[in-house]
């Protein structure tokens, strides 16, 4: 089968290439999915799981991409809950070959049914950013209606979904980003926007939750804005900034079928809009992941036309 492979960590996204790889075999509780569309987070190439298996053994050439939408073509021994021919979407194991390929082996529990009226490209854009936003707001941030949330990087993949979910939930959303992102931030549901390059973050005042996707100095300054009892939630590694009278939580997104169902239902009924900036083919994927101009939103690879 055709797949994108990564062999050289130092080369980053520019070092990925299109290659011929063996089709995956289903392990116990797996399904094989014919991938119709795949998402990719460029920082995957800095994660140890892209380069080694759980025992620490090198596993290159590895196939990146860990979110997908496609059709089940085979079931492994003991697999229940999904059928051959079923449309599915979801998040695959970080330590196994991923979704920038014509086929992928994935545990059935990591997938949810993809309704027939949701396009594969939209389905593939939702698992990582949608589940990260959901888990960050509701599980780790324990968001309550009426609270205020500072969503960093609100024009990006995670931030745009977090802003929409928080607004729907009855929160007041302050989005941040670059100056060019103001209109997009408001379009995705932010009540107000802070241009991190030109505005003063501290003018925001107190917030109940910070949803951080940036880290560093922005995260440390944001920690000082968290009200007593509030939470700084970050997805970019262990928190460096800590609220004086609140929690700091970092987490890695996990697959969750019920949450995937909630997310896709919102897309179907118009409460949630995907944030896709570019759709490319597998042949164009490496170039698409090395854009020459700035893009906000997801690049989705349409593997089967
Ligand atoms: N822990 C987890 O489970 C998890 C899950 C998903 C994502 N992540 C991580 O979360 C981060 C965001 O992911 P994403 O998919 O949402 O990325 P994304 O689509 O690139 O969004 C990030 C947004 O933040 C903006 N931004 C970054 N630094 C900024 C700064 N200093 N000032 C103003 N704006 C800034 C970016 O603008 P520019 O493009 O111009 O920089 C972009 O619009 C990544 O590091 C990713 O690895 C972690």
From TrEMBL:
<dbReference type="InterPro" id="IPR036291">
    <property type="entry name" value="NAD(P)-bd_dom_sf"/>
</dbReference>
<keyword id="KW-0560">Oxidoreductase</keyword>
<dbReference type="InterPro" id="IPR013149">
    <property type="entry name" value="ADH-like_C"/>
</dbReference>
<dbReference type="Pfam" id="PF00107">
    <property type="entry name" value="ADH_zinc_N"/>
</dbReference>
<dbReference type="InterPro" id="IPR011032">
    <property type="entry name" value="GroES-like_sf"/>
</dbReference>
<dbReference type="InterPro" id="IPR050700">
    <property type="entry name" value="YIM1/Zinc_Alcohol_DH_Fams"/>
</dbReference>
<dbReference type="GO" id="GO:0016491">
    <property type="term" value="F:oxidoreductase activity"/>
</dbReference>
<dbReference type="Pfam" id="PF08240">
    <property type="entry name" value="ADH_N"/>
</dbReference>
<feature type="domain" description="Enoyl reductase (ER)">
    <location>
        <begin position="12"/>
        <end position="301"/>
    </location>
</feature>
<dbReference type="InterPro" id="IPR013154">
    <property type="entry name" value="ADH-like_N"/>
</dbReference>
<dbReference type="InterPro" id="IPR020843">
    <property type="entry name" value="ER"/>
</dbReference>
<protein>
    <submittedName>
        <fullName>NADP-dependent oxidoreductase</fullName>
        <ecNumber>1.-.-.-</ecNumber>
    </submittedName>
</protein>
């Amino acid at each position: 089968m055709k797949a994108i492979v990564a062999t050289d960590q130092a080369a980053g996204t520019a070092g990925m290439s299109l290659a011929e790889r063996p089709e995956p075999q289903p392990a116990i509780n797996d399904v094989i999915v014919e991938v119709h569309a795949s998402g990719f987070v460029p920082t995957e190439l800095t994660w140890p799981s892209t380069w080694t298996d759980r025992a620490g053994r090198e596993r290159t050439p590895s196939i990146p991409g860990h979110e997908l939408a496609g059709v089940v073509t085979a079931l492994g021994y003991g697999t229940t809950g999904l059928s051959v021919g079923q449309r599915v979407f979801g998040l695959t194991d970080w330590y196994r070959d991923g979704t920038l390929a014509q086929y992928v082996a994935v545990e059935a529990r990591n997938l949810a049914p993809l309704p027939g009226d949701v396009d594969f490209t939209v389905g593939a854009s939702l698992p990582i950013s949608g589940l990260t936003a959901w888990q960050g707001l509701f599980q780790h941030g324990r968001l309550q209606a009426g609270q205020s949330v500072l969503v960093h990087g609100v024009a990006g993949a995670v931030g745009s979904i977090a802003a929409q979910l928080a607004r729907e939930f009855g929160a007041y959303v302050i989005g941040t980003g670059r100056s060019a992102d103001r209109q997009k931030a408001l379009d995705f549901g932010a009540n107000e926007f802070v241009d991190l390059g030109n505005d003063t973050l501290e003018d925001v005042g107190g917030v109940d939750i910070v949803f951080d996707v940036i880290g560093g100095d922005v995260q440390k300054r944001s920690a000082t804005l968290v009200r007593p009892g509030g939470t700084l939630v970050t997805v970019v590694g262990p928190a460096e900034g800590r609220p004086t009278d609140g929690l700091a939580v970092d987490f890695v997104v996990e697959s969750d079928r019920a949450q995937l169902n909630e997310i896709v239902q919102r897309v179907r009924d118009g409460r949630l809009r995907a944030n896709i900036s570019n759709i490319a083919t597998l042949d164009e994927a490496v170039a698409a992941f090395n854009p020459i101009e700035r893009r906000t939103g997801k690049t989705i690879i349409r593997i089967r036309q």
